[in-house]
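Example 395.
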Amino acid sequence: MAARKRKTAYTTFGSRTDVGCVRDHNEDSLVVAPPLFVVCDGMGGHAAGEVASEIAVRVIENRAPAHADVEELGQAVEEANLAIIRAAHEGRGREGMGTTCTAAILENERLVIAQVGDSRAYLLSKGRLQQLTRDHSLMADLIEAGHITKEEAKVHPQRSVITRALGSDPRMLPDLFEIDVNPGDRLLICSDGLTTMLSDEEIAQILARTPDPQLCARQLVNAAVGAGGYDNVTVIVADVTGFTEVRRRKLTRKTRITAFFILALLAAIIAAAVYGFNFASDHSAYLMEQDGKVAIYQGLQGEMLGLSSSHLYDLTDVAVDDLQPGVANRLRTDGIKVDGVEAAEALVDSYRAEIAAKQQAEADQQAAAEEAKTAKEADEAGASVTPSAQGGDAQ
Ligand code: MG
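Predicted structure in complex with magnesium ion:
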């Protein structure tokens, strides 16, 4: 048996099941696991039909091939048959329980079907509805033999007699069908709760006028229930998208993934740039002249993308005119870049010390000049007194 892993399918589909208006429980079971679609209609009385149909869908879901291989799909249905017989022997469900089965794999433009009983597969193609499967029922045999008409079959007392089902004969073989389909075709799989309530024409009209497959499945079931709902009704609608659509969707998906990674990369680059910009801003500062004083700005000097990243951190009391002419000129024109505000404050402190030293030197120089002047004046005064004293001693 092929690997269980199924390929991702691009089929659009819808499904619905309903107990109907007469039965008190639903014996139908279904699988919607693209590309696999299965409808089973259980029989055998309360707490038996649903057991048989449930066993069938689980076995088929687990054993069906991953691709449209009709032989392997048929083998999966045969295994489901044996599983139901075995379950009845083991006391699960009831002896004689059984189920119909319409199992299909729709892979791109290839459709394979394994069929047992009177559940059906239809194909709506170019507006025309074609029944793909043949019923294993007494009514189908009588109609084919020309003994009764389709209309007579609808009210025939033995209209529920099934001539082949899963769960009775261990040698049972399903009918196998294998066809090519086209994009735009629509597959319908259903239990007889639909086909005994609606004519093929009514089914075709609903299939053709309702583009959304899920809405279409709901409308089919609602129509069957509205017509009386004498039986459980189960419907799967699957649209054939084909190779072209698959390729288009694959490309679209690949394009989306590529776009996602490009956007993610751009976002990472922008985030890194913003982080780097903020980091640089937090660790940068510069000094400029403002109102004749030395101002400390935190951030990067200039603008990026028209935005300024710096702000005034401190307007100091240091007068630019008190600084060295070269430094003062630089502060008035380009500014002086430093590594952060702490370095800026240290530089301003050095300016203060430099100014203080300069002022101290000037004060010392002035004091020395004053002292020299005073000494000179004292010397000059002493020189003018001495000749007079000398003259007195002589007298
Ligand atoms: Mg039924």
